[in-house]
From TrEMBL:
It comes from Perkinsus olseni (Perkinsus atlanticus). InterPro entries: eIF2G, P-loop_NTPase, Transl_B-barrel_sf. One of its GO terms (biological process) is formation of translation preinitiation complex. The keyword Nucleotide-binding applies. The gene is EIF2S3_3. SUPFAM superfamilies: P-loop containing nucleoside triphosphate hydrolases (SSF52540), Translation proteins (SSF50447). One of its GO terms (cellular component) is eukaryotic translation initiation factor 2 complex. Keywords: GTP-binding, Initiation factor, Nucleotide-binding, Protein biosynthesis. One of its GO terms (molecular function) is tRNA binding. This is Eukaryotic translation initiation factor 2 subunit 3. The lineage of its organism: Eukaryota, Sar, Alveolata, Perkinsozoa, Perkinsea.
Amino acid sequence: IMRLRHLIILQNKVELVTEAEAQQQYADIRNFVKGTVADSAPVVPISAVLRYNLDVVAEYLCTQIPVPVRDFTSSPQMIIIRSFDVNKPGQDAEELMGGVAGGSILKGVLKVGDEIEIRPGVISKDDQGHV
């Protein structure tokens, strides 16, 4: 669906299992992605808590994932892929604090103080891959 070409699979929380269990999980991951776009992706066992192999992940991201061409001069456009509100259920309208939206800026730059418009839409690409 997303047509991703550069993938890395992180096997997290390896500090919580034995070495044998981690090796079995690794085999399970490899089997799960067999025949998919992720078939040739490296699987890196990590522990975010212990910072184990985070240097390997950082090096991979810096050396194997190409930096996309950026357009900093156009008006900002962002695709939102997830959102949630920070309000408590049943909160009075006067006390509403807003929400959080996450995604990727497709072009342009957002600056503090910019006024933004959020609206529904469908993003599609032409034959050359342009939005």
